Structure formats: C-alpha cells, structure tokens
Amino acid sequence: MKVVFRADASDQMGTGHLMRCLTLARELRLRGAEVRFVAREHRGHLVARLQDECLPVTVLPPPEAEATDPDIYGKWRGVPVARDAGETLAAIGRRPADWLVVDHYGLGSDWETALRPGAHRILAIDDLPERAHACDLLLNQNLGATCVPLPPGARALLGPKYALLHPAFAERRGRVRNRERAAGRVVVFFGGADETDLTGRTLAVLSEPEFSGLFADVVVGASSPHRERLVAQAATRPQTLIHGPMSHLADLLAGADVAIGAGGATTWERLCLGVPSVVTAVAENQVPACVALEAAGLALFTGTKATWHPGLLRTALRRLIGAPDFAARLGDAGAAVVDGFGAKRVAEAMLPTPVAAWAVRPAGAERSGGATVRGFSAAAQGLPLGSVRLATDGEETTVEFDVEDDGRSATVRGKLLGSAVALLRGAEPLGLRTGADASLRRMRLRETAADSGLRLSLLSDAASWLNEPLAGLVAGWLADGHSVAWVHRPEDLGAGDLCFLVGCGQLVPADIRRRHRHNLVVHESALPHGRGWSPFTWQVLEGKSEIPVSLLEAEEAVDSGAIHDRDSIRLLGTETIDELRAAQARATLALCRRFVARFPASAAEGRAQQGEPSYYPRRRPADSRLDPDRTLRQLFNQLRVADPVRYPAFFELAGRRFELRIAPPPEPEPRPVSA
To answer: Residues 581-618: pLDDT tens digits?
Structure first.
C-alpha cells in the first residue's frame, strides 16, 4: 500500500500540520504501508526531521519570491494551486498512490480534483469549517466538528477521538500524576515558532512571587527566534528548565499539574493526559475550538495572541492552583474526550484490519449479586474496538455492549458475542481457555435496556460453521430490543415468539415446535424442488450460477412448509469453500433479519409450495473422493465445496491417501476512484 503525504511546516504556519501527519505515517508504516512525504522548502521546514525518521521525502522548490496572495493560507502555500498540484503529481510518480493524505489550509477541493490521476483515494485533514473538499475521507479533529458537503460515498471522521497523537500519550495515560492536590509543576509550550513570544511573557508571570513556587518546564520550538533570550530569562528563575524541540511532550505532561500553551494540536495532548490547561489562540482558526473547549469545561481560554494580557493568565492560574478539585474535574473531563488512539482509528479507516485478525481477550470472571460476570474486549492492532459484559444468573445472561459507532459496530458486537458465547459454552476460540461450565448448552441473552420486543430462539448445531456469523445476527437482535435464547439441542428450547432453525441438522418434534408461534428454516433451493440435505452444495456441483434461498415454516415433513420469503445467491463459478459459505451466511442472515424486522406482517405472507417435490440425498465423507484420472477442470467443483477440515477432498493412489486443498487468488489492487 503506497501512501503519500502532502504537508508543510514553516515559520508562518508552524509545525503542527506536518507533525500530526508524521504521527499518522508512523502508524501506517507499522501496518506495512510504503510511506513518503512531499513538502515544500519554506523557511522553517522540517525536512531534516522526516529524513531522521528514514522517511523518503520529495522537497518541492521554495517560493520564488515572498508570496503576495491576499489570502493568508495562499501565502502559506507560497505558489499557485495549479503549480503545487503539478509538482505534487510529478513527485508521486507513475505509480498512483493508494492513499494521498493532504494537510494544508492552502490546498482544497480544486487541488484534490487535480491530484485524482495520482491517487486512488484522498484523505483531507482540515480543522477549518465550511471548506469544500473533493476527497474520499475527511478528518476534522476539532471539538464539535460538523461535516461539510462531500462527494458521494465519502466519509468524515469528526471529533477529538480522531486526534493524531504520538502513541506515547496512550501509553502514559495509566501513569499520570495524582492531581487531586495543590499544583506543583507547570508545562509551557506555544508551538514551533511563537513569533510573538508568548512563552517569554508567560515565564514573566510565572516569575512573580505568587507563582514562583511552581516548577516550570518550558519547551522552545525549533523555529522560535527567542531561544537565547528565553534561556537567559529562565536562568533568573529558580526551578525552571528550558527544553528544546521534542518528539512528543508525553513525559513532561504526564508529570505536570497545569499546562499553558497554544490552542493548536498540543491541546489534544494535554486533554489526553488530563492536564488542566490554559490556552491561547495563536491563529484565528484556533479561536472557535478554544471557545468550544472552555464552553465544554475542558480548558480555560485567555483569548488570542493579539489580546493576550498577563492579568488574564494570572486569573486562570489562580482558578487552577487555588482550587485543586476544580482543576481535577477539568483534567478528568479532558481525559474522557481524548484517549490517545486517534492515529490508530484513522489508520484503521484507511487500512482496515481483517475481522479474522481482531484480537478478542477475556477479562476474567467474578461474582456479583448472585450472578457470574464475565467481560471480553476486542482490539485491532492495538486499537480498542469495544467490550461486552455478560452476567449469567441461571440460564439467563444479561448482555451489555460498549462499542464505538464507527460503521463497524454491528460486526464488532457480533465478534465479541460470538467469542464470548463460544467460551461460555466451553469452546476454545482464538486459542483462549476459560473455566466456564462446559455443560452449558442453553443461554438466554437479553440487552439490559431491552424491556420489550420479541422473544426469539435460535437452534444451531454445536459444531456448525454458521455459529460465528450467527453471533452477529444475535447481537443485532439484542440491539433492536429483542431477547434471544440460543441453544444447540431441541430439548433445550423454551417458549417464545419465533424460533429459527439455522445451521441445524436435527429434527425438532412437533410438541417442541408448538412452544413458538412460528418455526423458521432456511433452505437453499427453489422449493419444492431440491428438498433434503445440502442443497447448496449439490447445486454448486451441478454448476448452477444462481441458487435460490427460501425462508419457510418448519413442518413435520422435511422442507414442506409455507414459504415466507425468498432470495438468491449469484455465483461466478470460481468461489472456494470459505467464499461459498460467506455468501450462504449473508443470504441466510438477511432473510432472518428481514422476517423479524417486518413481523407480524412477514408471517402473513407465507404461501404454500406448488409443484412436484424432488430430494437431494445426504452427503457423506466419501463424496469428497476425487478420481485422479480426471482433469482439474473436471474436478474443480468437487474441490471448491470440500470442507478442508472435516471432509477434505482426497484421492487414493498405490494404496496411499492424498488430500488436496485449494485457496482463492489474492485480492486485486484497488482501482482508482473517479473524480
């Protein structure tokens, strides 16, 4: 995966844009991406910093003269948009980038449109409101950020939870200083340039007798023109350390009681570590965010650099130092907003981790109010995806989910629930072990907030391959307010409204079926043709390219009930067993979801089967036997339907048994997205 970043640093614009791109680049590189930068040679650029990180960088020529663009962001850009677009395209080269990341207030929708030939997808990082973009993904990490109009299919990542912070901040969250006492240490940082010397003016206030007892860590940016004077000023104040440019401030902030600084990217670093802060807007675009921070009780705002006054800083410091409880509340509120995983969230949106690679971990078991409580968490490459808490009392388990709503919440809930249920039933998915009761065969699940809804039952074989996707179905029903009893034996079925017999090869007696208003079965054939066993597999072997899927009422005679709904699975003819099962699971779950969502109207639409029935026989392990004298083309369908674990395809030669397995080809390269 080729990812190209277009970002600048300069004395005028500061270093924040390039530094947060560097944070995202590190995360993408950890995920195997090939990362490179394109940056213009402005005064105060950080090209050497990128090179120190062994990141390839193409340096664009400096502006030929002092930019005369009336727009401040045009001055930051330094050259016409068309020229910048052309130079960036040339820097990308003949092979388009899979992702182009642009973080520059001087480059907008026109530039993005011009870059389409050089990038399959574009991520625009922009904190300014109401700027048009022609991107595929927009990131605005400001508090209260709202989405601007985007092209069809584009997504927006909004809010501080996406703040691009160095991974050290997430690591330090559990080791911050206890701040429920009088303040003793303050960190001062006003960005990479600080041309108006807010650092020196702040240090002057801290040198006053009222605040002289504070230990001050003063960070001076790489582009600051005031470093020598600040060093001399600090020498006259006891307990003061001057720090040069740092890769991150996590260590300093973790030990601080108060922070003073600019309202830019460092704001989110202070919030992440719960440091009560005094902020000043050093650029006009920072003002709305600073106002929102104070209104939300997350920081104290002293105005802009033009209106800064030492009296405002004194008042803010007195509020924080004189009221430790207030300062602690301010810090706790900030820590609740920013958790330090923003770079991982953005990287996950760009290069999603396959569901099969998610890590699910049990959090142990405890007794609470007579119930056994177990917790499970899911993560993707270190990014927490969510957790589930299951409290089992007798045969009923209450389920509580805590999952981010990022477009994959249903998948995360299903993964969590599937792993949790498997463990509670005594299985060992993902190589985990548990002391759960292995005899538990019946589990009634309900969401804590569910006080109405349908009573649903699900019967599947304990060893069915469908159990994993069925967990997602159950999680969705729980979220919709229904209760679900999931069992593996007919005799464990209780009473309810609807019972789904899915992934189930067992016969359910009539007296048990009468416990529900409707008993539903999914069958992959154009009933009444193709009743019986493994209809999907038999039709694949017949070379069918479209296979009907029916949802019908379970009756005494197998597959003879009224048909409530029907769908179809379309095949290319090259799918292997996992792909075939995935298609079958999608169709099965869609029919079940649709019936529940439309009930009771869906039940009234059942129609009796018409026509003469036909039957498929039960498949046996011997059906996976291959004739070694036939060609691969002739054997292909047999190979693609064979279960490689339970019923592998095999042939015998010279008294020996040989097994064959096939795998699908790798995923193709992503195609360019049209402008």
So the answer is: 999 999 999 999 999 999 999 999 899 999 999 999 99
Residues 176-191 pLDDT 10s: 666 556 678 999 999 8
Q: 157 in helix, strand or coil?
A: strand
Residue 18 CA to residue 57 CA, distance in Å, equals: 12
Tokens standing for 376? 């499970």
Distance CA 664, CA 582 (A): 13
Common-topology check for domains 2-158 and 167-339: yes
> Domain boundaries in the chain?
2-158, 167-339, 621-660
Q: What share of the chain is helix, strand, coil (3-state, %, to 5)?
A: 35, 25, 40
**Structure token pair of residue 77:** 């850009």
- Give per-residue pLDDT as tens, 488-530: 889 988 899 999 999 998 999 999 999 999 999 999 999 999 9
Of 437 and 168, the structure prediction assigns the larger pLDDT to: 168
**pLDDT above 90 (res 306):** yes
Which contacts qualify for 312-319: CB closer than 8 Å, 24 or more apart? 313/202, 313/205, 313/260, 313/278, 314/205, 314/208, 314/210, 316/278, 317/205, 317/211, 317/258, 317/278, 318/210
Place 64 in a pLDDT band, splitting at 50, 70 and 90: confident
241 has which bridge partners? 217
Say which residues have a Cβ less than 8 Å from residue 166's Cβ, sequence separation at least 6: 23, 247, 248, 250, 269
Contact 494, 457 (CB under 8 A): yes
Fold entry, domain 2-158? Rossmann fold (3.40.50)
Tell me the C-alpha distance between 222 and 525, whole Å.
70
Please state the pTM of the whole predicted model: 0.78
CA atoms within 13 A on the CB side of 592: 29
DSSP labels, 577-642: HHHHHHHHHHHHHHHHHHHHHHTTTTGGG-B---S---EEPPP-GGGGB--TTS-HHHHHHHHHHS
Q: Report the C-alpha gap between 51 and 63 in whole angstroms.
A: 22
The CA distances from residue 44 to 39, 249, 414, in Å, are 12, 20, 50
φ, ψ dihedrals at 402, nearest 5°: -130, 90
Q: Which amino acid is at 380?
A: A
The phi, psi pair for 204, rounded to 5°, reads -65, -40
DSSP per-residue letters across 69-133: -SSHHHHHH-S-HHHHHHHHHHHH-SS-EEEEEEE-TT--HHHHHHTGGGEEEEEEE--STT---
First-to-last alpha carbon distance for the chain, in angstroms, is: 20
> By three-state DSSP, how is residue 153 classified?
coil
CATH architecture of 167-339: 3-Layer(aba) Sandwich (3.40)
- When pLDDT is cut at 50, 70 and 90, the band that residue 567 belongs to is very high
What is the spatial distance between Cα 169 and Cα 334, in angstroms, rounded to a whole number?
13
Tell me the average pLDDT of the chain: 89
Compute the distance between CA of residue 575 and CA of residue 540 in angstroms, rounded to an integer.
10
Q: Tokens standing for 228?
A: 């020598």
The backbone torsions φ and ψ at residue 97, rounded to the nearest 5 degrees and listed phi first, read -75, 140
The beta strand positions in 18-81, using DSSP E, are 34-40, 57-60
- pLDDT above 60: residue 472: yes
Give pLDDT, residue 674.
Answer: 37
Q: Point out which residues pair with 568 in neighbouring strands.
A: 548
* Higher per-residue pLDDT: 597 or 392: 597
| pLDDT at residue 439 is higher than 50 | no
Query: Which amino acid is it at 665?
Result: P
- Residue 223 is predicted with a pLDDT of 75
